[in-house]
Description:
The protein is an all-alpha fold. Helix content is 39%, strand content 0%.
Amino acid sequence: MDGFSSPCGSFILNRPTLSRRLFPEKGSAQYDEMVKSSQKAYLRTITPKFQTLIDLSVIEILSRHASDEVYLGQQRDNPHWTSDSKALQAFQKFGNKLAEIEAKLAKNNDPSLNHRVGPVQFPYTLLHPTSEEGLALRGIPNSIST
């Protein structure tokens, strides 16, 4: 699945884990276990594999774009959504401005420019207005309900 290889949201260390145990008190059986094998003790405190899989699956499902997604500033399916010519002109101007911004953002990901992608060579694209279908790590939907 694409979401599990996503460099942002699905990397489990990018979000807090759920601790299932308190730090053990000195002299307790849990403390002795921690001293013997700190890794095993740590693994017993974090979110179990099944719960982590559910969390990652939900993140992926909520992060996907539909094939018919309408992005901010894009023309609606119904070209007659308003008869107000001033509103239509303002909407067209807004859409054009977003296209200009997206072009500037694309240039900003040039790896020859210092400090644009970080040491992992992963460009920041989350504010790009448009996206392709699926999990793309970019795109601003026109509505949160779509």
